[in-house]
Amino acid sequence: VQLQASGGGLVQAGGSLRLSCAASGTIFTLSVMGWYRQAPGKQRELVATCASSGDTVYADSVEGRFTISRDGPKNTVALQTSSLKPEDTAVYYCSAERHVTYVGTPRSYEFWGQGTLVTVSS
To answer: 63: burial class by Cβ within 10 Å (0-12, 13-18, 19+)?
Structure first.
């Protein structure tokens, strides 16, 4: 599975950006798709995820400002950001998981995109 992310850029504080990600190389609907980010000198952290069921998870720091959406059959996911803050500056990574059961044993496979830089100026 390959993930191709796009939509990063430079934006002023208070502005918005829309990040998009498309998965290829699979005919199956991915179990979870989402976004993580890594700021300079910090660990990668969860931003938001969306399961194939539609269940979403948001980091507290972005709740109410970011909205994740996905098209399950097409294996695409988008992150609409708003009210951006300088602390949102980071490389944003698209992620995906495929959960399978093999011979009665559940397994999870993770996939990562190449990252797209979001810079928020004050």
So the answer is: exposed
